[in-house]
Amino acid sequence: MPLIDVRHIAKSFKVQDVKNSGFKNFFNPSYRIENAVKDISFQVNRGEIVGYIGPNGAGKSTTIKMLTGILVPSEGEIVINGIIPHRNRKEHAKQIGVVFGQRSQLWWELPVADSLNLLRHIYKVSEKDFKRNMELFQEILSINEFIQTPVRQLSLGQRMRADIAASLIHNPRILFLDEPTIDLDIVVKEKIRDFIKTINEEQKVTVILTTHDVGDIEKLCDRTVVIDHGELIFDGKLEQMKSYYGNYRTLIVDIPDLQADLTMKSVEVMKIEGTKRWLRFNKEEISPSVIVSQIMSKYEIDDFTVEEQQIEAVIKQIYEDSVNVKKLRSEERGGEPAMTKAVQDEKRSVSV
Ligand SMILES: Nc1ncnc2c1ncn2[C@@H]1O[C@H](COP(=O)(O)OP(=O)(O)OP(=O)(O)O)[C@@H](O)[C@H]1O
């Protein structure tokens, strides 16, 4: 049985229509329904680290809030280790740790040590477990450097380390992290990644994290779930994602004629820098040699290279809600769940 079972959840918000929010409509405001999450299902097994990613406004935080019991799904059902989060918040709180990157759960005026001590009493953590956890927090997060400092005086990196420690003080089985490395420098990012990896490997803590950082995904996530406009568009291993989105390549051509018009079917001009142009194409639809010969029939080419699709580029495209993602959603999925498509791709061992 999966540890986290999410079935057909949806979440809608009623929001006031800003277009009609003038004085005339003051006494009679109009509303629209914002469907933040639409029919999302996935399961997570114990010990997995899942990257939950997608462009801004895709519905990531809304999902995390439903998983933690903060929000009640408008439709569908979530069962986590036998508990329905919003129905049994108290019991659920004991089994989860939560970190929202942009908000602290610590007491602003208190030194970190006092906050951790308070949480220890709230959750009734034994002396032995508390001591062991504090040693681990020091070993990987170097928490002693700022343990006596009031939270309001911490740097963002220190605050995040303190928040992560606080979320794990009660040895939860599951950790939800919403943008845990946002705006942090690379040294702190690495510390946090090491820490997540350690608690996952040594204590089998299951982790779901949302992030905009490709490094977090590459270093931590066995599996990625991608959502866009509130819908699940991919669920699988990073490598599967590469082959799923991997039909795209970039041809970099150097054309001295700055006015050259490279409008072509199945080719998209992604970037222009001086005489260089980056042309993205689907290798199933057109080959680079055909593109080059079409260009050469009109213009002189000084140089050209074909770039392989890097995983960073794939993820970047997803974050940027690129044409690529939209195209796959509308043309290739044809209503079929993305996960099925990815698994089929793997079975067919589609080459990248
Ligand atoms: N409380 C709310 N009331 C109304 N609309 C909301 C509320 N919370 C989220 N939304 C809307 O739901 C959609 C999804 O928001 P959500 O914060 O879940 O996205 P996200 O993927 O976490 O985005 P980001 O990466 O920018 O944080 C957005 O259009 C957002 O404006």
From TrEMBL:
Keywords: ATP-binding, Nucleotide-binding, Transport. This is ATP-binding cassette domain-containing protein. Residues 13-254 form the ABC transporter domain. One of its GO terms (molecular function) is ATP binding. Residues 343-352 have a biased composition (Basic and acidic residues). SMART domains: AAA. It comes from Paenibacillus aurantiacus. InterPro entries: AAA+_ATPase (IPR003593), ABC_transporter-like_ATP-bd (IPR003439), ABC_transporter-like_CS (IPR017871), ABC_transporter_ATP-binding (IPR050763), P-loop_NTPase (IPR027417). Pfam families: ABC_tran.
